[in-house]
Design a protein that fits this description.
This is Cysteine synthase 1. By secondary structure, this protein is α/β, with parallel strands linked by helices. The chain has helices at residues 2-25, 44-50, 68-81, 98-110, 124-132, 151-161, 175-191, 207-219, 235-241, 278-292, 298-314, 338-343, and strands spanning 40-42, 53-58, 90-94, 113-119, 136-140, 165-167, 198-202, 224-230, 272-276, 319-324. The protein starts with a helix and ends in a 16-residue tail after the last helix. Bound molecules: 4'-deoxy-4'-aminopyridoxal-5'-phosphate. 4'-deoxy-4'-aminopyridoxal-5'-phosphate binds at residues 67-68, 96, 98, 202-208, 254-256, 297, 299, 325-326.
Length: 359
């Protein structure tokens, strides 16, 4: 009798656990519920080639299609908590596009207006998507951060000039990094059961790398945190020799590469940096598409290149985690255009057997 009772209770307990699990996982609460808990995917070809586990967070599975949805959610939630953003208010941001897209989605869900300043050399698809989302998009000529006309400073000035508006300031507002300390890092730790030897990410604001790195180092100080830097960015030299000197060349990757150390990157526990060439980033973006089936942008190809290089340095049997940052649809007219690649001298970087698919 006593035995039956125990069995009954344990079954009930199991049913409760299952229900709780289902309500957390199966039913997401509105758009905010679609930010985070992205799948961690084993990239089979890249893993087999290196003898390591090459795992990638499928960040395109966030509701707005990129890793930046996480920062967007935290930036808005912090502005609400601080009382800077009141009902019906306006969110203003300077962005290469993906943070703006995340913000625009969240603004639709929460009833805020959204004004986006972005450099006019970013992809037309991101600008078009922002317009469809109802954001007021203001493409401006690209110029350095030190120039008062830089898109970030224009966003700050505009927000200060209107009532009930907030400049979310993704580069220097550490609510961005916190999103990755509280969400992305713990997700990686849980999904790998703590078996992670290295993480590697390209850096725009630095939120992803600094946030994930901070959380994982707290769990295990031996996790290697590796910055993946595109051509023409200063961060590779900064990590290697403390100098803010640009590497040679320039990159077609959008959303990553930096000219300074942002507040989000400041103090991040970074062990090493890799300078990744566009030729490798492009090759691996196409290999990811045609050999693994994932259609992503060039920052993802750069991340995967860095993950493979890190795996080779560590040797077989290790686990390296990176991220698939956004969807390839954002770059049809550039990265996936034969003419564009040819104009940048990158057509040869696409493996020959895949070039016929370009037009
Ligand atoms: N990849 C893409 C496509 C991005 O838009 C960004 C952010 N601009 C990143 C990577 C880098 O993310 P983070 O800002 O967290 O460094």
């Amino acid at each position: 009798m006593a035995f039956r009772k125990v069995q009954y209770f344990s079954k009930t307990f199991a049913a409760c656990e299952l229900k709780r699990c289902l309500s957390q996982e199966a039913i997401r609460n509105g758009f905010a519920g679609m930010v985070g808990r992205t799948p961690l995917v084993r990239l089979n070809k890249f893993s087999a080639e290196t003898g390591c586990e090459i795992l990638a967070k499928a960040e395109f599975a966030n509701g707005g299609g990129s890793v930046k949805d996480r920062a967007a959610l935290y930036l808005i939630q912090q502005a609400q908590k601080d009382g800077q953003l009141k009902p019906g208010g306006t969110v203003v941001e300077g962005t290469a596009g993906n943070t703006g897209i995340g913000l625009a989605h969240i603004c639709r869900a929460l009833g805020y207006k959204c004004v986006i300043y972005m450099p006019n050399n970013q992809s037309q698809e991101k600008i078009d998507l922002l317009k469809v989302l109802g954001a007021d998009v203001r493409p401006v000529p690209p110029c350095p951060f030190t120039d008062p006309n830089n898109y970030n400073h224009q966003a700050a000035r505009f927000a200060a000039s209107i009532e009930n508006a907030v400049w979310t300031n993704q580069f220097d507002n550490t609510a961005n990094r916190l999103a990755h300390i509280e969400m992305t890092g713990p997700e990686i730790w849980q999904d790998t059961n703590g078996k992670v030897d290295a993480v590697t990410f390209g850096t725009g604001t630095g939120g992803t790398l600094a946030g994930v790195g901070t959380y994982l180092k707290e769990k295990n100080k031996n996790v290697q945190v590796v910055l993946a830097d595109p051509e023409g960015s200063v961060l590779y030299n900064f990590i290697k020799n403390g100098k803010l000197e640009r590497t040679d060349g320039s990159s077609i990757t959008e959303g990553i590469g930096q000219g300074r150390v942002t507040k989000n990157l400041e103090g991040a526990p970074i062990d090493d940096a890799l300078a990744i060439r566009d030729t490798d980033a492009v090759e691996n973006t196409f290999r990811l598409l045609y050999e693994e089936g994932f259609f992503c942008g060039a920052s993802t190809g750069l991340n995967i290149t860095a993950a493979v290089q890190t795996a080779r340095l560590l040797g077989p049997g290790h686990t390296v985690v990176t991220c698939m940052c956004d969807v390839g649809q954002r770059y049809y007219a550039k990265l996936f255009s034969k003419d564009f690649l040819e104009s940048k001298g990158l057509l040869e970087a696409v493996p020959e057997q895949y070039r016929a698919n370009l037009h």
